[in-house]
Amino acid sequence: MDTQDLRRLANAIRRRDLQAVFEAGAGHIGGEMSVIDILTALYFHVLRVDPENPQDPTRDRFVLSKGHTACALYVVLAEKGFIPKDEIKTFLKPHSRLNGHPNRTKVPGVETNTGPLGHGLPVAVGMALAAKLDNASWRTFVVTGDGEMQEGSNWEAIASAAQYKLDNLTLIIDHNRLQQGARLAETNNLAPFPPKLEPFGWAVEEIDGHDMDQIVAALSPEKVVPGKPRCIVAHTNKGNGISFMSDNVAWHHKVPNAEQYKQAMAELEEANQ
Amino acid sequence: MNAIAEKVKLFDCRDAFTETLEALATEDTNVVAVCNDSVGSSKLTGFRDRFPERLINVGIAEQTLVGVGAGLANGGKIPFVCGAACFLTGRSLEQIKADVAYSNTNVKLIGISSGMAYGELGPTHHSTEDFAWLRAIPNIAVVAPCDNVETAAAVAFAAAFEGPIFLRLSRVGVPQLLPDGHTFELGKANLLRDGSDVTLIANGTLTHRALKAAELLAAKGIEARVLNMASVRPIDEQAIIKAAKETGAILTCEEHTIFGGLGSAVAEVVVDHAPVPMKRLGVPGTFPPTGSANFLLDEFGMSPDGIATTATALVQRKS
Ligand SMILES: Cc1ncc(C[n+]2csc(CCOP(=O)(O)OP(=O)(O)O)c2C)c(N)n1
Ligand SMILES: [Mg+2]
Predict the structure, then answer these.
(1) Which helix (H) or strand (E) holds B26?
(2) Pocket test for ligand 1, best of B34, B37, B42, B125 (most atoms within 8 A of CB)
(3) Confidence class for position A273, pLDDT limits 50, 70, 90
(4) Which residue intervals define the domain Transketolase-like pyrimidine-binding in the entry (chain B) (predicted)?
């Protein structure tokens, strides 16, 4: 899919996500709006995955480590054909397989269950190691939140990935500068990320995480540096695309009221013109 | 939820926790709070505004959260280490074992939104193993208050108590069950209703459901004793033995897996001292489906009706 189509699709996914959170009365809309451009590029331009054969051993692996933004992943998986589009309306409903965090035992396309932060990257290191052991060409991608990078497990995994020269592994940090209750800068600041990751032996690139051309270019296999795991620091905005949510810590898991929903939807629709 | 429909005021016990904590911090400058990007969910915004330098937010880093708590205790502070119960216990279990319990540091662990309080967020966010995990570690008290009054009393108790203690709080609304001014005693059950046919033992969010079940049972001619057993360790052995001997059957109810929690702790006392028919209600050893805490409790047979039905069957098993 070309970047113009990817942009339009990302806009549609934002609208479906907004509607799902509004109707369910819960969700993590801020972090969903910040990660949707990245998810769209991954699923519709990069990942070699097949909804008809979700367990294909040669598939690329994707891990949404910031599992609280599951709703965005569900909408993307539905667009891609892993689950019926119609099922999104069951998000958070009793007995739905779409709960607040993705579950691989229930939802095809999900590789590992996330929710507790700081789990995805170590698991992704294991996936990348498995591919290396088999001399297989499939790649592993993982998205973490920037606040999530405060978990020590990530830095243990970063060291391991470098030690094993996992150039088949790509970490994308959704760097929206906000965590749950405050800005990273007011909590436990890790920014800037590149000077922390590079000395570990990682190849790091910074991009605008809402610029589809930059996302697609950064994820291209030609960017792989032999022998080095790769990190893309994606500069994003929490709540991106909705003016009153954008870069506003209040919208980590707040739910829009009817009026806010209408305005948010109108803004997204206008951006799609 | 079927039977708890009438309009009673429900309390979010986190409010009682933070009100008490702020009062304690006013009196004693050694009281500090430690959290993991959970200022809002632990209801610590008031504490932060009043005592900004005494709120330590380590970020999303639970192992460090508990380790820092142990260090603060070593430095003479009284740390209230607050976080979502699932991460506070699960992620930091070894810190709890080595830095808190084994090192015997004066750390107060406050597990917020325990049990299935996070409902639809799913099993990663449920804390239905914490009794079992912490009961397996020596030297840490484990307490699950049943209402706002008991929460406030237990927080005050924890501050005065020398040593490791875990308080398991919810966010799901519960009615006030204990009288104002109630004082908390570690290792002591509260008799909330007397009866001679069966004993219902519960804590946390289940106590009010058990009381409601006792009313339903009374209407059917079954007199149930209800014991609120906030203190899971140490546990009130005398009250359990007495209940076994006087009522001849015990049903436990908890927002926790039935393996290793309150029911198991009660059963350990019962088999050793006074074997009688018993049944444990709780999460039945599966990962719960999607649903709210109250929905899931009902699903797992812990609506007042469900508890009463199980109790009735249990009474029939008495010889
Ligand atoms: C181990 C763990 N601790 C705490 C939480 C609660 N929590 C959920 S989301 C979140 C903030 C995440 O911030 P960030 O990683 O920056 O994500 P984003 O901004 O993209 O939403 C927190 C603290 C959790 N899910 N897991
Ligand atoms: Mg963030």
Answers:
(1) helix B13-27
(2) B37
(3) confident
(4) 11-176
| Predicted confidence band of residue B6 (pLDDT cuts 50, 70, 90) | low
> How many whole angstroms separate alpha carbon A90 and alpha carbon A96?
6
What are the φ/ψ torsions at residue A248 (nearest 5 degrees)?
-120, 115
All structural domains of chain B, each given as residue ranges with its CATH number in brackets, are 11-169 (3.40.50.970), 190-318 (3.40.50.920)
Q: Output the domain CATH number for residue A10.
A: 3.40.50.970
Tokens 């904590």 sit on residue: B21
Which residues, judged by CB distance below 6 Å to any ligand atom, belong to the binding site of ligand 1?
A: A 28, 30-31, 34, 66, 68, 115-118, 145-148, 174, 176, 178-180, 238; B 36-37, 60, 62, 87, 91
Q: How many domains does chain A have?
A: 1
Contacts of A24 in chain B (CB under 8 A): 120
pTM (2 d.p.): 0.96
Q: What is the pLDDT of residues B157-201, one digit of tens each?
A: 999 999 999 999 999 999 999 999 999 999 999 999 999 999 999
- Counting residues of chain A whose pLDDT is more than 90, the rounded percentage is 100
